[in-house]
Amino acid sequence: DAKTTQPTSMDCAEGRAANLPCNHSTISGNEYVYWYRQIHSQGPQYIIHGLKNNETNEMASLIITEDRKSSTLILPHATLRDTAVYYCIVSAPRGNTGKLIFGQGTTLQVKP
Amino acid sequence: NAGVTQTPKFQVLKTGQSMTLQCAQDMNHEYMSWYRQDPGMGLRLIHYSVGAGITDQGEVPNGYNVSRSTTEDFPLRLLSAAPSQTSVYFCASSLGTDSYNEQFFGPGTRLTVL
Q1: Do B105 and A44 touch (CB under 8 A)?
Q2: What are the two backbone dihedrals, phi and then psi, of residue B56, each rounded to the nearest 5 degrees?
Q3: Which 3-state string (H, E, C) describes B77-106?
Q4: Do B100 and A96 touch (CB under 8 A)?
Q5: A8/B contact by beta carbon, under 8 A
Q6: Per-residue pLDDT averaged across B12-39, rounded?
Q7: How far apart are CA B74 and CA B56, in angstroms?
Q8: pLDDT over 90 for what percent of chain B?
Q9: Do A71 and A24 touch, CB atoms closer than 8 A?
Q10: Taking CA B97 as the corner, what is the angle to CA B24 and CA A61, rounded to the nearest 5 degrees?
């Protein structure tokens, strides 16, 4: 799997957009970008994934650069409940049989 | 749907004891897996299963056994507990095939081995 680089921590004001960056400069052509988050002491939660097009769901938006070497997860209106560790993971959807490599992630602190 | 359930939530064992961590899902998912998470670290894959009757080792399988006799259940057995197995254990499941990486996680079992 390609490695990812994320900032260790970020702060965001409640109600503002949270933009979480991820670098994955060695990503392969068949690898997708996945985002998970882990709220304190809970199991990780899948957020979104994408290959090369921007993606949006009810939780977040994912912006992937044209060269696919980096991406940004956007939480459009952060709330206190979005405080969590956010993991960016690159993996092929099939060939790796589900082995997700969780790095250190970004600790997002949403402040009132 | 209850999603992915795990029992027990907490467990304390003595060195050398054995136990089984239970995991069940009611989403008819083909794929199930077990991870462990040590303090301040990311999750590491222990074992996984791509369907009933099929299991394989992950990154850190030593000291653990699994079996998958039904689609719903994927128990994790600790054969002879050691302090190094003190960790939080998460079970996960996904539809499988092209969706291996879109995993649903359970709430975790917090295990302490004395």
Answers
A1: yes
A2: -155, 165
A3: EECCCCHHHCEEEEEEEECCHHHCCCCEEC
A4: yes
A5: no
A6: 95
A7: 12
A8: 82
A9: yes
A10: 90
